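Help!! Second protein's tokens look totally different from the first
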Amino acid sequence: MQATHTLQAERREKKGSRYAKRERSAGKLPCVLYGQGKDPAHLSLDHKEAIRFFESGERVFNIELSEESKTQTVLLKDLQFDYLGTNVVHCDLIRVNLDDVVEANVHLHLVGDAKGLKTAGAVLVQKMNEIPVTCRVSDIPDEIRLDISGLGADEHMTAGEITLPEGLKLDCDPETVVVIIDVKAESEDEGTEGEAITAEGSEPEVIKAKKDDDDDEPKKKEK
């Protein structure tokens, strides 16, 4: 885990989807902070700052409230997206200690050029963008890398084939398919426009799963 960044937060006195929409229009990201036996705290983060850290793979932060001098260590537990599945509109955070053992989703980074993509009609389909693991908060990495260079046409790799860093335990079925090279049959009367062909010399198409959108005020998720 890299150095822990601090997120500046403000309390939201008014709750509900209408007020959350106003927060987002003002460049804020609504969030709810749970955990450690305390009442949920409804907060606002700086949207650009928070998203920049989230997209870089960071999951553990310090939260600093303007009216409190003490910072709190928190874990990003969930993100909610808009109806298009592209923009983050809400996040859930949970209070933790660095020695706590928790369940966390870690970004999966595919590396290497899969040999199967040299086959005409081959498409790289990424079934999982994150890998669920159990570990200490201090051991959560920003990403987990998976080398797909040896992946052939019509072959797949499972979660159990991922080499996890020390201290991490896989928290899903090891037979879960993570990535697959799917070869699409070409019809003789089909045109080339819009086809997902990734023969040698062309760019592979990567299909990633989108998260479902949720309400502005989501229920707590303990994954």
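Here's the second one for comparison:
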Amino acid sequence: MTADPAATMSRPLTAAEQIEVYFEKGWSDGLPVVPPTAELVQAMLEAARLEPTEVVCEIQERHLRLTADKVAINAVMAGCKPEYMPVVATAVKALGCPEFGYHHVSSGTGGSSLGIIVNGPIVKRIGINFRDNMLGPGVRANATIGRALRLVMMNLTRARPGALDRATLGTPGKYTLCIAENEEESPWQPLHVDRGFRRDQSTVSLFASSTLITCYNNQSATPEPILRALAWGLAHPGAISLIDHSPGLVIFGGEHTEVIHRSGWSKQQVRDFIIEHARQTIADLKRAGRIPGEITPEDEHTYRQAMLPGADLILLCAGARSGSFSVCMSGFGSSRRDGRSRTYPIKGE
């Protein structure tokens, strides 16, 4: 993979022709890419203070070393601005975390999304959306940073459909998933502070999850009904977490955040409540074909938990102020083996 394949041609290619070359080479995610000229790649490297041959990530399971120049090429292709590159590079670095278990989360048949959570001052400086439609389209930083990570996975680690990506169905979150926390309006301290970083540090947290489930509740003035619905979303009868105990993620929208804030519940209380209620009876799991065997009377009152006590369930407050919506994303992998989220500081921030 070279920075500028057009440089080897007998005549300059038009922009449209260059885009077609990348489709033909199989270097796209199915959408048009920005041709990565040497000048654009160099701007990415300079913005992140990286040397071209510097190793950004080592993925021991794949015996791979991902260098900064190759990461920068994919960031350009994704449409990133140079100021996004420090976030992209940190997200790529996180792929090599042994507890994250990259091989499983990138190649399993469950087809997980790999999501980026950005915290700290860099969020506002580069314009990552954490309010209205923050999980949807419309903001370049969110869209291209998440896309850059996926292109790195596809082009540098062969995480491609039919190759090392063996997802049965996949999810739209595999195109791009980059979000930020609304730290200003959250009643709690932000994720990166929970994980030992200063509030004024900028960080990236990587997580693996199944696709999101929306929770709508505009009737409840107390947290319990909202949290029960989210817990059930994390532990629906088909959830991977009921087998592997993978924690996942919950994002509280503005109105649900206000309900919880008025109640005075701490983040730990919310986490403990969700973990306790994220479960299914053995009887219902047998009815759903998740557990073999005949249903016994005891099965109706015996539960299987989706998460182990003390699980590191990620809780964020973000999204628009209006609307009685929150979302949950069931985790992917095992809390004891892989898929565990980790947070990394952004270099130079």
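Reply: Different proteins will give different token patterns, so don't panic. DSSP finds 13 helices and eleven strands in the chain.
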